[in-house]
Amino acid sequence: MDRPLKGKSLYNPQAAHLAVESLEDIGYVSKSVQCDLEYVRHPVGFPTDLSNGVPAILLADHFNASSIAFGTVLESAYGIGHERYRDYPIGAHYTFYSTLFNAVGLHLSLPMAGVSEVGTAMIVEKSPIGFVAQSCIRGTMNNPCLKCWKCFRKATLGRALELDSGSPATISSLLSREVKSKLLAYPISHENVVAFSMRRYPREEIDSDDSRILDSLLERVKGISDLDFLTRWYKPSQILVHSSWREDFTHKILDFLEVMPPKESSEIESWSMDSFLADPSTISAHDQLEDLFNEP
Ligand SMILES: [Zn+2]
Questions:
Q1: Are 57 and 107 in contact (CB under 8 A)?
Q2: How far does residue 135's CA lie from ligand 1's centre (Å)?
Q3: CA dist., res. 115 & res. 257, Å (int)
Q4: How confident is the model at residue 10 (pLDDT cuts 50, 70, 90)?
Q5: Could you give the C-alpha distances from 137 to 48, 192, 280, in angstroms and in order?
Q6: Measured in angstroms, how far is the CA atom of residue 149 from the centroid of ligand 1?
Q7: Distance in Å, CA 125 to ligand 1 centroid
Q8: Ligand 1 midpoint to CA 123 (Å)
């Protein structure tokens, strides 16, 4: 969906346009369709989180599509990194929307639902077409804004995973007002990803400012398990891929990621942050982080 911009907007579509063009140049069928659906509403915005699929739904017959796929990750589907696990395939969101899609002869596929944000970064690094992926929607291609919440997560994760495509930005330079307020949320959105990155952040390369911030963030997330499972694929999620391409998909994803062993799948299914968030030491670490951010 190509959203026409009207008035002031932080959103910059340049990277998305270039991604579509690059994929077309190397032989992928890729189309973008102008759609101003978001302006139907006041205030401007999408009526649901799947609204960006509207052009694909309308053109499904034209493209002979059996299914429409979205890039929802493990954290958003199964609640990992949020308060507690939810059995997404039988939950209210998927049941409601998959029924709507089925009513017009389409399947709703979520192939990334078993891959965490850590896993998607690993796929982007390894894939020959990974260079077109950019999560920041404010910056331009290869020039992310480095001020938004996504940029903070991606840049610190890139350092933790030692990605060649990672950003050299320091932690302190990424701490915009928006990022500070996200880090002070309780729980932090995608707290598992922040914890994963802080645990593996290359400490030997950082200055004293970054060291203090890193220590404070580590203290805040220290009660979370070691999270190694985030580098692997949660296989039960394959049920969210249409049966006609499930086998092909499974084969492809194994080129990039290992499968979580049963012990790690159980860790997913028993994910809960309740006791960790109620722990006085986590609350106190949150307060100390707030004090650090408020220092002049
Ligand atoms: Zn950004």
A1: no
A2: 7
A3: 9
A4: confident
A5: 19, 22, 37
A6: 7
A7: 18
A8: 20
CA–centroid distance, residue 144 to ligand 1 (Å): 5
**How far apart are the CA of 15 and the centre of ligand 1, in A?**
12
DSSP string computed for 117-156:
HHHHHHHHHHSTTGGG----SSSBTTB--SSSHHHHHHHH
CA dist list (Å): 144 to 54, 122, 137, 177, 196: 27, 18, 8, 17, 22
- Residue 37 has φ and ψ, to the nearest 5°, of -50, -40
Token couple for 264: 């790690």
Respond yes or no on whether the N-terminal peptide bond of residue 280 is cis (omega within 30° of 0).
Answer: no
What is the Å distance from ligand 1's center to 14 Cα?
Answer: 13
Q: What is the pLDDT of residue 121?
A: 97
- How far is the centre of ligand 1, averaged over its atoms, from the C-alpha of 71 (Å)? 18
Torsional sign, CA 54, 57, 62, 68: positive
- Mind listing the pLDDT tens digit for each residue in 105-139? 999 999 999 999 999 999 999 999 999 999 999 99
Q: How far apart are CA 247 and CA 150, in angstroms?
A: 32
**Pairing relationship of beta strands 67-69 and 107-109 according to DSSP bridges:** parallel
Distance CA 93, CA 115 (A): 18
Ligand 1 centroid to 11 CA: how many Å? 10
Tokens 């409601």 sit at which residue? 96
What pLDDT digit, counting tens, does each position of 211-267 carry? 999 999 999 999 998 999 999 999 999 999 999 999 999 999 999 999 999 999 999
Cα 10 to ligand 1 centre (Å): 10
Its ipTM equals: 0.99
Ligand 1 center–CA 166 separation, angstroms: 13
CA 263 – ligand 1 centroid, Å: 35
How far apart are the CA of 174 and the centre of ligand 1, in A?
Answer: 10
